[in-house]
Design brief:
This protein has helices at residues 42-53, 66-75, 82-98, 114-125, 163-176, 197-214, and strands spanning 2-8, 15-21, 27-32, 56-61, 107-112, 130-136, 154-159, 180-185. By secondary structure, it is of the alpha/beta class. It has an eight-stranded mixed β-sheet, sandwiched between helices. β3, α1 and β4 (56-61) form a beta-alpha-beta unit. α1 packs across α6 and α3 crosses α4 (114-125). The chain is globular.
Length: 219
């Protein structure tokens, strides 16, 4: 298993990322964390480990530079700038395409909370590269008009106790159409902190990605 820390040169100063590529990887999943989080999010790290065990490479990346993160801690303005975050995700997808280890692999996006909206916008912008999306407790409504342009099969995972977000995801599921599925994790709140709930998320995501990233891309 190849593990490396890299700086992805998509903004001035670059963005820090942790890249893990299992031997014989069948695909790669880029993570988009939620508001106020980072590539060290324990929930995303746990999901990434499950994906690695299933033969998927993972890229956990900070979407803000250290200076931006410090500013955002005070203003909280950048974490909700879905357009900017999506542009960065799309640029990271382009960077991955040029990486010798990641370039040949089909791409999935895993987004949490507001990061899910950015992932969906990026998927719409890179339909030829992004083959699957998973949203955990996501806000797909924040993807706006890009939602109807998403072509990648999308799994929407929402906690059973997260009632407001369930309603928003039901609306998004209707826009995404037949390629999307909404699955409710019983007994889970927004952060999936209840025993066994994050493990269910990791299992569902692992199955979704391994199935969709193995499927031949439609002509």
């Amino acid at each position: 298993m190849d593990t490396r820390e890299v700086t992805v040169p998509v903004v001035e100063g670059g963005l820090a990322a942790d890249v893990i590529v299992p031997s014989g990887a069948i695909g790669v999943v880029l993570f988009a964390h939620g508001s106020g989080s980072s590539r060290h999010s324990p929930r995303n790290v746990a999901v990434a480990q499950e994906l690695n065990d299933r033969g998927l490479a993972t890229v956990l990346i900070d979407l803000l530079t250290p200076d931006e993160d410090a500013r955002d801690e005070i203003t909280a303005e950048l974490r909700f700038d879905i357009g900017m975050l999506a542009e960065r995700l799309a640029a990271i997808v382009d960077w991955m395409a040029a990486d010798p280890a990641l370039g040949p692999l089909p791409v999935g996006l895993f987004g949490a909370s507001t990061g899910a909206a950015a992932a969906l916008v990026a998927a719409a912008a890179r339909p030829e590269r992004v083959r699957a999306v998973v949203s955990r407790g996501g806000r797909p409504d924040l993807a706006g008009s890009s939602l109807s342009a998403v072509r990648a099969p999308t799994l929407l995972l929402v906690g059973g106790l997260d009632e407001q977000v369930i309603a928003l995801n039901e609306q998004a599921r209707a826009v995404l159409g037949d390629m999307a599925e909404l699955r409710i994790v019983p007994g889970a709140t927004h952060l999936f902190e209840e025993p066994g709930t994050l493990e269910q998320v990791a299992d569902e995501a692992g199955t979704w990605f391994t199935t969709r990233l193995r499927t031949p891309h439609p002509a």
